[in-house]
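Lab notebook, bench 4. Continuing the backlog of folding jobs that were queued last week. Each job is logged with the same field layout so the records can be merged later without manual cleanup. Today's entry covers Inositol 1,4,5-trisphosphate receptor-interacting protein, a 549-residue chain. Filled in by technician R.K.

JOB TYPE: sequence-to-structure
TARGET: Inositol 1,4,5-trisphosphate receptor-interacting protein
LENGTH: 549
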Amino acid sequence: MPVGLFRVCLLVITAIVNHPLFFPKENGTVPENTEEIIQKMKEREESLRLEQLRLEQEIADQEATQKALEKAAVVVEESKEEKVRWDMWTALSMVIFLLIELWRQDFQEGNWQDIGGEEDDMAVLGKAFKGVALPDKAVLASFYEKRILGTTGDMARMREMVEGFADDLLEALRSVCNRDADMEVEDCMGVGSMYENWRVRKPFVCDLIVPFAPPEPYCFHCQTWCSGDSFPPDEQGYGTIKVCRADEDETGCICDKTKLGEDMLCLLHSQVSSTRPSSEMEDLLCFKNTQYLDADQVMKWFQIAVTKAWNRISHKYEFDLSFSLLDSPGALKIKFKSGKSIAFNLTPVVQYENSDVYFISHFPRSSLAADVPSSTHWFLTFAVYERRFIQLVSKTLPANACHVSCLQILSFLHGKQCSLTGPSGLTNYHLKTVLLHLLQARPSQDWAPEKLEARLQDMLKFLEKCLHEKKLYHFFIGNGKVPAELGFPIIFQRAEPLNLFRPFVLRRDIYRKMVDTFHEMLRNMSALINEYTVHIPLAHTNGIRKEPL
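JOB STATUS: finished
OUTPUT FIELD FOLLOWS
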């Protein structure tokens, strides 16, 4: 009970003390301070809310950035893996390409000319020969004797006459030229079908090349596509000829490349010799503002020189001399008073170093140089080595070998076909190249006269294979089996083989025309041979009808 009373008294006392009217002055501002505190608390709450939103946005941005970085890292890692895989495939492809290239070079060096060794290889060729039968040996022999030999009997006399007149004309040319300023002309040489004894188509035209050299103190520096300089693919087979002074190397003295001071002089060249005006180089038949020999300038100079030379000696001869082609430097024609004429080509050339390879400016009656890159690019001719190779091989063949006969027959048939259907990209030089390859591939006994028909088939099948593959390699360039007796320059033996059919790869119209002409020739071959063959008894012709010549 006392405890209860004590609690009641304590509660009363506490109520009295905490009553607001008990201390009116001290507690009069309590309501106002409470509202201010509440307002501050609200402001603080709002600021904390904004700060929380800002922090949440920053955290979200950081998380997005982190995810982007992680994604970028994954992409980079995947790209690295893809690059590694791509590099692996690239390296593997390069290795395969190199292996194929090495195999191709080995094949070209060792087997690309062994086309006549296996009869099985020849059996898979000659698709165009299906249904085409060559005339038998008796018909071919009669055709060759009456049509080929009957038209080539006067070639020796014609060669002798043309060579004698050409020597006289060149001697007169030397006399009218200025020895101190004009080019020095050497003796001419006969090349081509007339001098290899396989030309059959009339008119007979002798091809003569005339080497020339610059006057002292100048010399020629020749650069070929395989001499280490960079030549594009369409300039393979060509070269340039730079005119240099004999007292300097081909790259020129350093005084030509460095500006010397006014008080300094070159010990090798004087001030006069170090400067070359453009007029001086043009007098040396160079292209404008260059030191490279210009084929067009050479052609103009040679035509003018030949005209002057003929004017000096024309009184000695009872015929007229004229140019048959103005776009060729020396396409000449002799006209007799009787109306007969003799044509021959006198073409200026530049010797390559000390070899019998020559830079030739123009090819008369030929499409070999139809697309010359520029007038400073000269085509290389190996005609002298081709003639020597045929002469060298002929010494090892049986008597009356049929190699020349095959080329003559094909040349005749091709010419007749072109007269019927028009010219094509296929030339006699392509036929000759086929023969050169077969001469090297076939053993000597295979060229006996009684094997004319078989070798003729080999040439046609090999030519068909080349047309199908669009590949006919130059015989000398890239051929490591050239006989050492010829003294052929090693730089051309080690060069990449030159495809003579390369221009037809992009020119499909000419290629199509060439293939069509070849197939048409195959179909018309028997008819063409029979047309120019004298009558042979039926027993010898196996029932083939013959017409008199």
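OBSERVATION: Residues 30-110 form the longest helix (81 residues).
SIGNED: R.K.
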